[in-house]
Each structure stands twice: as structure tokens, then as C-alpha cells.
Amino acid sequence: MNNRFTQRGEASRQEHHIVRIWCSGNIGGFQPLVAGSTPAIRTSYHVHSERMPEPNPHDTASFGKVVWTEEHRDWENADFTSLKDGTAFPKEFMWGVATASHQIEGGNTNNWSAFEPRSKSQQLSGEACDHWNRRTQDVGLIKDLGVSHYRFSIEWSRVEPQQGEWNQDALQWYSDLVDDLLARGIQPMATLHHFTQPLWWDEMGGFEREENITHWVQFSIKMFELLSDRVEWWCTINEPAVYASMGYVLGEFPPGVRSFKKTRLVSMNLMRAHARCYRTLKAMENGNRCQIGLVKNINLFDPYRRWNPLHWMQTKLLDGMFNRCWLKGLATGRFKPPSGLFSKRIDGLKGSSDFIGVNYYTHLLTTPFMPTKVEIDPLIRPWEQRTDFRYPMYAVGLRRAFDMVRNLNLPIIVTENGVADDDDDMRPEHIRRHLQITAEAIADGLDVRGFYHWSLMDNFEWAEGYDQRFGLYHVDFTTKERTLKDSGKEYAAIVKAHSMPQLVVMAGGLGTRLGSITEKHPKSLIEVNGNPILRHILDWARSQGCMHALVLTGHHGEQFEGMTHPGMCLTFHREDEPLGTGGALWNARELLEERFILVWGDDLHPIDFQPLVMQHISENAPLTMTVTESHSSSNLEHDGNVLLAYDKRTKDTSKLNGYEAGTSVIEKSTLLKHGKDGKWSWEETAYPALAGQAAVHIDNTKFWDMGTPEGLASLEEFLNETTL
Ligand code: GAL
Fold first, then answer.
1. Cβ(560)–Cβ(572) under 8 Å?
2. For the chain, which has fewer Cβ within 10 Å, the N-terminal or C-terminal residue?
3. How confident is the model over 630-681, as pLDDT tens digits?
């Protein structure tokens, strides 16, 4: 902790302007309107670093009172090591990037394109990033970042350009997008409403009329029918509070209205629409296996002067209208829209989210003056750094946002977080800080499942046009060229440090001891408990965070044709003749990544991959093998950490003290060093050669070898009784 922050009265050494509270600019990036200025008054307030108290789980009405404390941190001496060494996040963490249709696709005709000539920047979205014509390339960009998830929105105006007319090409395009993503091992997350809607619906009154909701729900049904077999994650409405306040209070988003009455109406209908959409989709085929949630922007409000009751009152008011009434609505089913006096029950609203999407950008310092037209910079604390949007970078606020939503008792996903930063000098640090805060929240027991960086690439930033750049990729809006920024490299490096290496499955072996069943069929394809054992192996690896698998199918490779696996990108490699385990690996060397996890296609070995990989990395080993000391026989000698000898054929087992249990981590350079053409056995060649060098990872978890009829039977029994 920097003492500077703990001294009372140090906060306002500068002259400040008084913020007039309603805001301009995207509230996703909220920008205050200001009128007039006043000399600074010394502010005393509290800065602390200790853990926040546990909120009361039954306290659904107040939503984490702890968030009222404005905590700051001295980041200068922050230690980000765990982000880089891959220990900050759990292996199943969802690493993502996010976009929205209108901001990237180009060529859209909707409420926004109609509004653009009247918008603050008056810039037209026009061709945007031309993503509509560059889909495949852009999916490649996502893949290059190494992320596992991608959040995009579906442009209703393309899919249903006229009421009841479905555009087959557009439907096909989104379906192809999903296939492209899955083929690269990236899980799609689809948003059904991200600020835009078709003009025909807008002209009917959009969300101003309750009876219009049904049309949007019809569109949602259509998309769910089309994609829910492949898309597990769905967001209903993106940032309803932003849509309502920007469109109907500040007039900066379409329809550009300033009316509290309409704000209440639209807010009410947004919540009704969300609830109806959720209930309808949940009742459909695939509804239960899909995760459907609302995306809420949490914009924190803090009293500018913490001793001033008027600033507090204003803070409470804005926080209530922008954040809490929406969360309370979700939790209780009764919604009091912003500026409303009474709450109303909304059918199906209570509990209508399988997760809560949190979009977080900043906090705003509030004072009780109402807006005027003069716009200057929002207030910030003296040590805070302004983003290009002029609001401050305030990473600790992300933790406060989590605390605000935690009493919903839902998994939390950061569906957006990012920064407008033209020259990319702030974004790498922005990423580190927000990820650090997220990792700490997880360590403190909060159920944060994923993080989607906003945004994949620079794009059309609504009322700000192309002036605010949020991308990990720079986009040249003339040539449409995309270039990875340093921040993109930073994000990719953190993701990579937390990602499982490629999985390689030796799946071509035929069973000599299983009789006629596997004379011509690889053992890995024998069904156990309703599925080929290979599927059980892939399921396990997926649960351990592996997204990419290379399956070495041997010389009966045609039997694997057309095989796909949920959540994984599979590559197959076959040989024309039997090559043994070593020859198969050697032959596929072009397809191997620098480091890979090798498993046997006829063994199920349900171990925790993470400690194995961590040990491998920390010991800088050429190969790390898993060794069990609980097997009935032994085939190697080890001294706890290092392999001393390997011999699976010896009769003299007196010195042997372990058994190679299957899963190993291998550097590709190790294969290149020990490999050769022709037929050879990996384990019998490489392991003895690596004596004294290969690391040993002790894990006594039982492995299930189905190479014999008895083995097959006991694996069947095991899978019958256990859910992996
Ligand atoms: C969010 C919005 C995004 C993006 C972002 C950056 O509110 O959902 O579309 O514009 O803000 O300001």
C-alpha cells in the first residue's frame, strides 16, 4: 500500500470541476456532463487493502453493501507473476474476446444506421471492419490469440430484414460462423440483442411497446432453433440500463429521446423481454443444456467528496437506477424501473439467468448537479489515469462489481472489459490489472467463470464513431488491415500460460489380446458404456482444459472419419502401414505443437493435468511422465523426481519401484532429438534414452487399461458407476 493513499485529505490536491451528473458518451464508457467549476475542497476518504467482508447471502435486496467502500490500490509495485506463470486461473476458465454485430460487420441497415447522421460524432458505421466479408480471416485472428471463447451478437436486421421474412443467407452466415469457430476449438457465445434492431420493428415502437416483445422473442427462437445444437452460451440483452439511459435519458443512442416516462416504459419492457426470452428458450429443445443469461453493465458510482451527504445521496440514487434496481429485479421478480416509484411483478423474471454477464469499464465520481449541455472531463482521483474516453482506469472496481452481483448466487462471467486507448500504451496494464483482480476474486471464492476482453479489434464505438479504439487488433479503416497490438500479445501470453498444451492420442493400436474384436478395429474405437473409449479420453481431456487434440489413427484411420468432439478441435493423422508408437509420432511431427500431452488411446487415465504440466514447466524437463506406485507391477526405477531406468520387459524387477501410468508431457524438441523414420516404439526407445533426464510426476490415480477382456469389463463397470 502506498502511504500517499492512506493519508486523509491527500485526495484532492488538484482543482476539480463539479460533475453534473447525467452522463454523455456510452455509459459502457460513461462520460459525465459538466457545468461550471469550483475550487477543490479537501476530501477525506478511506483507502484500504484488506479483504472485504463476506456479504450475507440472504441479503438479496441490498446487493453487497461492501461495494460502497471506494478501495484504491497502489499498482506500481504490483506482482503479476501468477498471470505469467499460469497459476492465476483455473484450467476450465473461459478465455474470450467480444464484439457486437453492428460495430464490426459493416453494411447494416437498422435503428443505429438510421440514427448515425444525428449522433454525437455523426460518423457512419458504413463498412465498419467489413467483418461480414472477412469472417474466416477474423476467426483466424481469434484463434491466433489462443482464446477458448468468442462472444458475438446476431444482427436481427440481417436475419429478418422485413417482418416475418427470414434471410437464408444471413442465417447461413451465422451458422457458418459457429462452425468456423468450433472447427478451431473456440466456443461461441451469442448475444441476441446488442443495441440494434430492424427498422420495421423500430418503427412499430421497439421496446416502447410491450406487444412488440413477441417479435424479438420470435427472432430469438429462430436463432436458438438454428444454433443451440452448437452454441451453449447465450446472452439475451446486452446492457439494458445503457440502452434505456443512452436512448431515452441522454438521447445519445437511438431514438435520441429525453423522457423519463419512456425510460421507465422501455426499462420495464426490456426486463419483460429478457424474462420471456429466457423462459421460452429454456423450454425448447437444448434449453436445458444451454446457459442463458442477462448482460449487465456495472457502472460504479462514488461520492466525489465522501464527507458530503449530498454527494452520497446522488451516488445512491444513480447507483440505484443504473445498477441495483435491475439486479434486484432479477433476484426478486419485481422490477422498479429507473425513476419509477413502484415496483411491478414481471412474470418469469425471478431467477431468469443461468449466469450473470458483467460488463465493467469504470467508476464515476458523483455530485448532485443536474446535467447541462457543456461537456468536459469527468472527475477523477488525482492518482487515476484517464482512458481515451476520459473516464479513469479503475481496476479495483471490477471486484466491487463482482461483489455487487454475487448475491444473485449465479456464476459470474466478465462478458466485457477493455479500454479505449488509441496508442495502446495503457491497454497492456489495463489487462493485467483487471485479470489480477479477477484472479483474486476467484481465490476468494467468487464464482467467476470467464473473461471476455472488449474488443477483438478496433470498431465502431456507437456515438463516438471510430474515434475510440478498443481492439486487441488495430484496424486500418481504409484498407481494413488488422494488426496485432502489444496488448493483444500480452493477453495472448497470459491466455497461453493458462492453457493446456495440445493433446496427442495414440489411437491406432489394435488389440492382440482382445481376440477378433480388434483385429481390424483400433482399440480406441471399442465402445465402453455406450461410447468409444476415445470419447471418454477426449471428455476427460476437455474437462482438464485441453481444446486441441491430435489423434494418431494408425493405418485404419478411415474408421475415424467425420468424428468431432464437443468443445474440441480435432486433427487426425493416419499412416499407410503400422509404424508403432514412435513411428506414428515421428510421422505426425509437423502437426505437433512445441509442447504436448501424450496419452494412450486404449487407456483411460483420469488424472489432474494441471499439476503435471506445472511440474513439467517448473523443472524445465524434456519429458515428464506420470508414474504410479500403486500398480500391481513395475516397469521403471525412479528416485521420486527423476526417471533412473525404464524396462518393461525385464524379469529382474527387484530394483523397479513404479509404473508408467500413461499421461506424459513432452517437448517437441525431445521427439526431434530421439526420433527416426520407420517402425519403432516410443516408450522402449525414448524412455531408456531419457534415463537421468526425464521428470517423474507421481500420481497414484488408477488408470483403466482395456487391452484385455477383463480390463474392458472393469472399465465398463467403472464408467457405469462414476461420472467423470
Ligand atoms: C459497452 C458496449 C460495447 C462497447 C463498450 C465500449 O457498453 O456493450 O458495445 O461499445 O461498451 O464502450
1. yes
2. C
3. 999 999 999 989 999 999 888 888 899 999 999 999 999 999 999 999 999 9
Indicate the class that CATH gives domain 9-497.
Answer: alpha beta
84 Cα to the center of ligand 1, angstroms: 28
Q: Do 615 and 697 meet the contact criterion of CB atoms below 8 Å apart? A: yes
Q: Which H/E stretch holds residue 372? A: none
CA 674 to chain centre: 39
Ligand 1 site, residue 391, Cβ cutoff 6 A: no
**403-438: b or e for each residue (b if 16 or more CB lie within 10 Å)?**
bbbbbbebbbbbbbbbbbbeebebbbbbbbbbbbbb
Residue nearest to atom 1 of ligand 1 (CA): 28
Are 230 and 289 within 8 A, CB to CB? no
224 lines ligand 1 (CB under 6 A): no
Q: What is the pLDDT of residue 592?
A: 97
Strands 595-600 and 502-506: parallel
**Ligand 1 close to Cβ of residue 112 (< 6 A):** no
Average of per-residue pLDDT across 548-574: 92
Query: In this predicted model, what pLDDT tens digit does every residue of 131-163 receive, in sequence order?
Result: 999 999 999 999 999 999 999 999 999 999 999
Q: Does residue 28's CB lie within 6 angstroms of at least one atom of ligand 1?
A: yes
Which SS3 state, helix, strand or coil, does residue 595 take?
A: strand
25 lines ligand 1 (CB under 6 A): no
Q: By the 8 A CB rule, do 160 and 166 touch?
A: yes
In angstroms, how far is CA 295 from the centroid of its own chain? 13
The alpha carbon of 28 and the centre of ligand 1 are apart by a number of angstroms equal to: 5
pLDDT score at 437: 98
Please tell me the number of Cα atoms within 13 Å of 639 on its side-chain side. 6
Pocket lining: 185 vs ligand 1, CB cutoff 6 Å: no
Task: In whole angstroms, give the CA distance from residue 473 to residue 550.
Answer: 29
Domain boundaries, the chain: 9-497, 502-721
Residue nearest to atom 11 of ligand 1 (CA): 28
Mean pLDDT confidence for 24-29: 38
Q: 299 CB less than 6 Å from ligand 1?
A: no
pLDDT score, position 375:
59
Name the β-bridge partners of 534: none
CB-side exposure of 219: number of CA atoms within 13 Å? 30
Kindly give the distance from the C-alpha atom of residue 195 to the centroid of ligand 1, in angstroms, as a whole number: 10
- pTM greater than 0.70: yes
Q: CA-CA distances (angstroms) from residue 331 to 319, 324, 409, 489?
A: 17, 10, 9, 39
CA 477 to chain centre: 27
Distance (Å) from CA 44 to ligand 1 centroid: 33
**Centre of ligand 1 from the C-alpha of residue 26, in Å:** 7
If pLDDT is split at 50, 70 and 90, which confidence band does 418 have?
A: very high
> Ligand 1: distance of its center to the CA of 278 in Å?
22
Mean pLDDT lowest for which of 148-162, 400-414, 452-466, 517-531?
517-531
Which residue has the least CA distance to atom 6 on ligand 1? 28
Q: How far is the CA of 588 from the centre of ligand 1 (A)?
A: 44
Rounded Cα–Cα distance for residues 251 and 337 (Å):
18
Question: Can you tell me the mean pLDDT for 42-57?
Answer: 36
Confidence of residue 267 (pLDDT cuts 50, 70, 90): very high
Region 343-366: mean pLDDT is: 97
pLDDT at 41: 25
| Superfamily covering domain 502-721 | Spore Coat Polysaccharide Biosynthesis Protein SpsA; Chain A (3.90.550.10)
Grid cell 472531463 — which residue? 377
Q: CA 449 to CA 357: how far, in whole Å?
A: 10
Q: Which atom of ligand 1 is nearest to the CA of 238?
A: 8
